Amino acid sequence: MNKKIVITISILTLLFISACTQQTIVEEPVCADTDELSYTTAGTVQKGEETLRDTCDSDGNLNEMYCLETNTDIQIVNCATALGANYICEEGYCKESIPEITEETTTETQGAVIVASLDDYIYGVNINDGTQLWKYKIGDTQYSTPIIYNNLVFSGSANDYLYAFNILTGELAWKYNTGDMYYSPTLHEGILYAVSRDELVFAFNPETGGIIWDYKTPDVNNPSPIVGDDKLFIGSDDNRLYAFNAISGELLWKFQTLEDISASAAYANNIVYVGSDDDRLYAINTETGTKLWEYETGSDIRNTPLVYNNKVYLASLDSNLYTLDANTGELLWDFSTEGSIYASLLMDNGIMYLASSDHNLYALDAETGKKKWTFVTENIIENAPVIENGILYLTSTDANIYAINTETGKQIWKYTTGAGITPSPIISNNVLYVGSKDDYLYALNTADGSLIWRFKTGSDIYTSAAIS
């Protein structure tokens, strides 16, 4: 063979071997997974169809990247921070949550009904015909009732975020990592207040999601915040009621009880009233944080007091309703049921409506405590009724929605769903909206209980809907 040809072939061979070697080095970096742990992520962060794999550091060690709080022994990745606001942690992967839009074809959209489900989604439903406008996967169970401000709807979730969506499109306006939010946020004079079970209190600009102020308490914060006299009141599992300047966030005072505070406080006339698991109701001067009086019941207080006509109405898990003088704490009258009282109290036109786990709804004269009538359901009543135009609408875990004449206590109509009902109904333009544990949101004619439409979610509905 010609010597020149041999040399040429040798050079080409060396170049080919060199190229292959370089390609192998690029595609297969030398590093190993040494933590001996097994994850559902297989060492990856999932982004849509793409996979962002582990990388090697200068020492040849694997830099593993997993979802937020997957495991505290390795590098933790916040999906939203690493990949973008629309990414959530789901089963160890960072996945994009994109609103699913249903185009309106037959009816012009005049508004939306917003409902959260235990299927981890929040839904926007066409108020006219019950068709889906959008849905957004929040990624964990939701017990926070959505609330609406201007063109936005706000919802907290147990996946540690507070979300703001466009009502009609479901577009994510903003979200913020608050920690677990089991309770609804509160809107007051253009500020959105929220508490989390991760010991945090927030004041947000509702339009932008910008933080106006925040505060960390020593323990879990439970009930939704309330505002009165330009002060924000928060109860906590550290047995304290906190009072903040609602605008600046300055801590004004703390009031110590003997046990957890599990229900929101009530405010009236420069006094804040708060119940505790120490069985007591406390009346506190809002300026100084000093106790004016206390009243002891026979069990935990898991209900927000109701203040009306210089009286405080208080339900306790001891099955009793107590009516106290708002200034002195003197007992004026009480009323006994045969079950614990979890539902919120309702006052209308001088009548107190009291729902009990003994299956009964009681109508009582608010001045004397005299019983006007009793309405019997077939199971526990877990939330307050609503009243419109002299008709009371009541839900029960017996799966029924009842319409009741407020004067006589007689049933006008009832509608039966496929499972128990936990949330209170809401009413708009003579239509009643309520969710059931049969996974449906119902829209009923308030006059006769006829079904206008129903919307199917993927799981139980535990909270009331919101109407735009």
List the helices and strands and how they pair.
Blueprint lengths: L2 H25 L16 E4 L2 E4 L1 E2 L5 E2 L15 H5 L3 E4 L2 E4 L15 E5 L4 E6 L5 E6 L9 E3 L2 E5 L4 E6 L5 E6 L8 E3 L2 E5 L4 E5 L6 E6 L9 E3 L2 E5 L4 E6 L5 E6 L9 E3 L2 E5 L4 E6 L5 E6 L9 E3 L2 E5 L4 E6 L5 E6 L9 E3 L2 E5 L4 E6 L5 E6 L9 E3 L2 E5 L4 E6 L5 E6 L9 E3 L2 E5 L4 E6 L5 E6 L9 E2 L1
Antiparallel strand pairs: 1-2, 3-4, 5-6, 7-8, 7-42, 8-9, 10-11, 11-12, 12-13, 14-15, 15-16, 16-17, 18-19, 19-20, 20-21, 22-23, 23-24, 24-25, 26-27, 27-28, 28-29, 30-31, 31-32, 32-33, 34-35, 35-36, 36-37, 38-39, 39-40, 40-41
In short:
The chain contains 2 helices and 42 strands. By secondary structure, it is mainly beta. The strands form 12 sheets. A 4-stranded antiparallel β-sheet has the order 9-8-7-42, with no helix packed on it. Strands 10-11-12-13 form a 4-stranded antiparallel β-sheet, with no helix packed on it.
Highest CATH level, the class of the domain at 337-468: Mainly Beta
Beta fraction: 35-45%
Quickly count the helices: 2
Which architecture of the domain at 337-468 would the CATH scheme give at its second level? Beta Barrel
The helical percent reads under 10%
Helix/strand-derived category reads: mainly beta
Globular, elongated, flat, extended or rod-shaped: what is the shape? globular
Report mean pLDDT, rounded to a whole number.
82
How far from one another are the termini?
Answer: 88 Å
